[in-house]
Amino acid sequence: MQFLVLSRRRTDQFSDADFEQLVPSEGAQARYLYSLGFTRQIWHRGDIPGACQIVEAKDASEVHEKLATLPLAKAGMLDFEVVPLNPYAGFSKV
Fold first, then answer.
1. What HEC string does 10-78 produce?
2. What one-character DSSP code corresponds to residue 90?
3. How many degrees, rounded to 5, is the angle at CA 46 between CA 91 and CA 39?
4. What is the pTM of this model?
5. pLDDT at residue 93 above 80?
6. Which of 43, 56, 82, 88 is the most exposed place for a label (fewest CB within 10 A)?
């Protein structure tokens, strides 16, 4: 099953310097999750500091479990919104 994950940096509680310390390890873990096939696509958000990604998992619990391995998540520096996705019915034959 696929999920849309919107993350937001908690910039109200952490400084740019706080984030910069963890960015290298965050990138390494993001690449690892991609190599597992969990992360399918990922982008930086254009509206606020954070990311948007499409992930593949058996359920929402697995999504949260894998996201929790990210260093910024471990440090409590991110908020996540996880949205389950269903196939678009408009392409099915009637």
1. CCCCCCHHHHHHHHHHHHHHHHHHHHCCCEEEEEECCCCCEEEEEEECCCHHHHHHHHCCCHHHHCCCE
2. G
3. 55
4. 0.91
5. no
6. 88
Contact at 8 Å (CB) between 9 and 49?
yes
Query: pLDDT grade, residue 84 (50/70/90)?
Result: very high
Are 73 and 2 in contact by the 8 Å Cβ rule? The answer is: no
State the sign of the Cα–Cα–Cα–Cα dihedral 24, 29, 32, 38.
negative
Nearest to 18 by CA among 30, 8, 9, 27: 9
Express each pLDDT in 28-78 by its tens digit. 999 999 999 999 999 999 999 999 999 999 999 999 999 999 999 999 999
Per the DSSP assignment, residues forming a β-bridge with 2 are 56
- Tally of CB atoms within 10 A around 56: 14
